[in-house]
Amino acid sequence: MLPLPFEPPSPDRLYRVPYAARAAEAAAFAAAHGVRPAAEDRVRMGLLAVDVQNTFCLPEFELFVAGRSGRGAIEDNARLCAFVYRNLDRITEVVATLDTHGPFQIFHPVFWVDARGGLPPPNTIVSAEDVERGVWRVNPRIARFVAPTGLDLDAYALHYARALAGGGKYPLMIWPYHAMLGGVGHALVSAVEEAFFFHSIARASPTRFELKGRHPLTENYSALRPEVRADPAGRPLAEENRALVESLLGFDALIVAGQAQSHCVAWTVADLLAEIRARDEALARRVYLLEDCTSPVVVPGAVDYTDDAEAAFSRFADAGAHVVRSTEPIASWPGPIGAALAR
Fold first, then answer.
1. How far apart are CA 336 and CA 70, in angstroms?
2. Least C-beta-crowded within 10 Å: which of 2, 104, 171, 321?
3. How far apart are CA 54 and CA 12, in angstroms?
4. Which residues sit opposite 211 in a β-bridge?
5. Separation of alpha carbons 49 and 197, rounded Å
6. pLDDT in tens, 191-231
7. Is 152 exposed, middle or buried (0-12, 13-18, 19+ CB in 10 A)?
8. Element (H, E) at 125
9. Radius of gyration in angstroms for the set of CA atoms belonging to the chain, rounded to a whole number
10. CA 56 to CA 261: how far, in whole Å?
11. Which 3 state secondary structure label does DSSP give 324?
12. What is the C-alpha separation between 190 and 324, in angstroms, rounded?
């Protein structure tokens, strides 16, 4: 493992990354430590950083992933930054997903109204039974901005809630407005952005950014595909990200971190492993989950998804993925990557 090039700033605050200074330092660090361009890597290792954004990772923002410790995402990102700096020479490419929303989305309050025109507060669960009984209906004031021509939004709302329940998904949760495109909450946490920028210069490997979640009529926890992909008539609604699937499966090893363990990380890994099962189950051994760089959604007094997150990671391990810690040398990890790097 490489030494830290400098003491990483705390990931619990916003700041402007000093790009010019960091670029010069990254080039000098690479020269001093013999860090080669990523294009020369014999073993291609990808780091998938899921939604490491201010909206999820800073306490003053909308959906801070606190975990049960109360500082979950902050501590996760401190370890993630250190992992990136110490393994600059190992990580071929960083792929960063960005949850990306507008106000008029099916999980935001303004999408729904009750019989009196009131909006649901955050953390409200909208069930199929609620929609069927008229407890919540689609807000007619926004209908023309979110629905394709000819789509019956009320029928779609019921279809959507039923599809989640029948597909083993989480029920529809009304979240606070978050990850708003163009807002500061949408951006990467400053310390993480800085680490990724440093890596891109040191390895001559630009960070790949993948936006997800822009379709107003479906959630998109997974980076690979939306929760619901068809309307009541079976017509395509939102497509899976096939290019990203192929890219991730092209690495010799894929390391996964980010937020939240119980939601976007879990559903992304689940979809990736489903793709792997359809191709070659042995490919699951290339997937490494940084258990100390991700935390579950916990809202005291409302929801606690810790048990769901731990159960998901246990299933992933049973499927062949490796659950590892960022503080362990990569060469000591189990599976093909440890053996390849130990040679």
1. 35
2. 171
3. 9
4. 98
5. 14
6. 999 999 999 999 999 999 999 999 999 999 999 999 999 99
7. middle
8. strand 125-126
9. 21
10. 11
11. strand
12. 25
Cα separation values, 249 from 45, 177, 271, 313, Å: 11, 33, 12, 19
Helices 306-318/266-279 angle, 10° precision: 20
The CATH number given to 19-99+188-342 is: 3.40.50.850
Domains of the chain: which residue ranges? 19-99+188-342, 109-173
Tell me: the pLDDT tens digits for 82-133? 999 999 999 999 999 999 999 999 999 999 999 999 999 999 999 999 999 9
Does residue 319 sit in helix, strand or coil? coil
Amino acid sitting at position 149: T
Q: Model-level pTM?
A: 0.96
Q: Map tokens 């359809």 to a residue.
A: 278
pLDDT of residue 301: 82
d(CA 80, CA 327): 9
Tokens 């595909």 map to which residue?
Answer: 225
